[in-house]
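Hi X.,

You mentioned you wanted examples for the new student's onboarding notes, showing what a folding record looks like when two proteins sit in one file. Here is a clean example. The first protein comes first, with its sequence line followed by its structure tokens.
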Amino acid sequence: VQIVESGGGSVQAGGSLKLSCEVSGRVFSRYFMGWFRQAPGSEREFVAVTSWSGASTYYADSVKDRFRASGDYGKDTAYLEMYHLKPEDTGVYYCAATKRFGTPLEQFYEYWGQGTRVTVSA
């Protein structure tokens, strides 16, 4: 099983980035794809989770209306589009897979990527 994130980078406040999460090694059709982030010196926190179709999504209040999670099962890739970025969005972003939609709790996410770093400067 492999989950690989990409698309991180440095951006100024107000800018946007699109993260990708490529999965392989097993059938993920019954999983939902989630995103977490960890800011320097802080614990990892939930950001968003989506069904592969994007019809079902759930966001942390801090990113609601600014981020959009989606998936393309045909490409085995999930996405996190981030708009109107703020310095507090800085951190390492992780993609993870769960069978339990809507949960922000890490223990319900079975598979994790290694993360991609996002830096937002003021």
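Then the second protein repeats the pattern, sequence line and then tokens:
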Amino acid sequence: QLQLVESGGGLVQPGGSLRLSCVASGFTLDYYAIGWFRQAPGKEREGVSCITSSGEIKNYTDTVKGRFTISRDIAKNTVYLQMNSLKPEDTAVYYCAADFFCTPMPRHFDSWGQGTQVTVSS
């Protein structure tokens, strides 16, 4: 059974950094793509970034380009989202999800983590 567990969220001041982790179990990253999504209050869930099974990176959200970086550690079966220069508008619940290929559309992903809250506020 595919399972994903996110961690690393929290409260951070504007301009600060956080690193989110997504630990996968029941499958290996060599065969699945992992996407990071976020959902702010009152807004639809949006794709942020995705890493394919071969390690190719796809970025979907223009507002985070140059600030957020996705990466993975195959040995730890973990995908990370490094978030720098955080802004209040980055406040959201962040989710990771697994499927066979990357797409910014949440409905294409079948397996989801429980989410981790990121709050950017002074």
